[in-house]
From TrEMBL:
This is N-acetylneuraminate synthase. Residues 282-332 form the AFP-like domain. Signal peptide: none annotated. GO terms for biological process: carbohydrate biosynthetic process. The keyword Translocase does not apply. Keywords: Transferase. Gene3D superfamilies: Aldolase class I (3.20.20.70), Antifreeze-like/N-acetylneuraminic acid synthase C-terminal domain (3.90.1210.10). It comes from Sulfurimonas marina. GO terms for molecular function: N-acetylneuraminate synthase activity; N-acylneuraminate-9-phosphate synthase activity.
Length: 332
């Protein structure tokens, strides 16, 4: 059975507080996620002083502050990373973080991260991709806003830098928060998997849990989803995130679908086999039949239970001679 790798994306929903970050870790653990993911960046390296905010960020944060000011408040320093990673180990959940610049890649590599998550915005950043590719780590590559050609280019950079393709999982994504249903285009996820013959998954920014659950039914091996302690908190991503109960419900739904997918063999299951006799039918006498009479459409019927001759043999039985007397409803 394929275990779907579920990443609970805390992102910057800790609002710059270690205590909040730890509470988010607790929620991810309780929900049954495999990993929790934060974001690692130096604001000075990430955003130029005059960069504007995205429309969704203007709606969810103070519209008068710049993107630089907003992001600076959400930065986690080196000590915070170490503390959160230690806390994750204690809680038995994988610590992940997305690096947004070269210093952050080095920091996470020094911390011994197993998996490097490349966000959608960096898929066209050649020096960044080359830097991560050189590390030869497992990579999860998000593909929001990108074309198949751009994904191919990014894969080529990662591979030629030194990462084997087998170590890469590609996530279909849409970088609008929240993503409108008509823009999800979940079939494209399967296209990615087939085009590159690579494990695929889905990073979800829709409201609710139906789409990531459907993605698992369509073969996603990795699901990433933003979550928060409370959607009404101040900050850019809370509004498009799941609350703790919803995260729990999503993980439960995915684990159920995982089990329900089963094998691809069609045969009676163990649980239903006992019902075959009860639900199926057999050929029976419609009325009394004497030995020597001919079985016909008039004196035969088909009724439950299914422990006699199968009705699929109807044509064989009609026209034969009865070898004994039958009462009404008796199995032939």
């Amino acid at each position: 059975m394929n275990h779907v790798f579920i990443i609970a994306e805390a992102g910057v929903n800790h609002n710059g507080s270690i205590e909040l970050a730890k509470k988010l870790i607790d929620v991810a653990v309780e929900a049954g996620a495999d990993a929790i993911k934060f974001q690692t960046f130096k604001t000075e390296n990430l955003v130029s002083k005059n960069a504007k905010k995205a429309q969704y960020q203007k709606q969810t944060t103070d519209k008068d502050e710049s993107q630089f000011e907003m992001i600076k408040k959400l930065e986690l320093n080196v000590d915070a990373h170490t503390e959160l990673m230690t806390y994750c180990k204690k809680k038995n959940i994988m610590f992940l973080s997305t690096p947004f610049d070269h210093d952050s890649i080095e920091l996470l590599n020094d911390m011994g991260l197993d998996i490097f998550k490349i966000p959608s915005g960096e898929i066209t950043n050649l020096p960044y991709l080359r830097h991560i590719g050189k590390l030869n780590k497992k990579i999860i590559l998000s593909t929001g806003m990108s074309t198949i050609g751009e994904i191919e280019n990014a894969l080529n950079v990662l591979e030629s830098a030194g990462t084997q393709k087998e170590r890469i999982t590609i996530l279909h994504a849409n970088t609008e928060y929240p993503t409108p249903m008509q823009d999800v285009n979940l079939k494209a996820m399967v296209t990615i998997g087939k085009t590159f013959d690579i494990p695929y998954g889905y990073s979800d920014h829709t409201l609710g849990i139906e789409v990531p659950t459907a993605a698992v039914a369509m073969g996603a091996q990795c699901i990433e989803k933003h979550f928060t302690l409370d959607k009404t908190m101040e900050g850019p991503d809370h509004k498009a995130s799941l609350e703790p109960d919803e995260l729990k419900a999503m993980v439960k739904a995915i684990r159920n679908i995982e089990i329900a997918l089963g094998s691809s063999v069609k045969k009676p299951s163990i649980s239903e086999s006992k019902n075959i006799e009860i639900a199926r039918k057999s050929i029976v006498a419609k009325k009394e039949i004497k030995a020597g009479e001919t079985f016909s459409e008039d004196n035969l019927d088909i009724k439950r239970p299914g422990n006699g001759i199968s009705p699929m043999r109807w044509d064989e039985i009609v026209g034969l001679t009865a070898q004994k007397d039958y009462l009404e409803d008796e199995l032939i």
